[in-house]
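B., you asked whether I could sanity-check this one before it goes into the benchmark set. Here's the sequence:
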Amino acid sequence: MANEYRGLGLNGGKFINDTAAHDGDFFCIVPTEDTVINTITSNVEDLDNLAGTTLAANSAIYGRITSVTLTSGAVIAYKV
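And here's what the prediction gave me:
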């Protein structure tokens, strides 16, 4: 049942709107506004190539994300 809750975001999350590094165990990040990623660490190959890319509000990145740092903007990082 934990997987169903995760898919709905019911395991919680973290609102990130600063430029500090944020470590955790996240399965998805969703920008709440246009957002630029500085660094991201995950199990998705070459996802670190997103550095400097602007993500549109309400887009989603899925994977096992263990760290994210923003250059600007804001995201909700949903917990595994």
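One thing to flag: The radius of gyration is 12 Å. Otherwise nothing jumped out at me.
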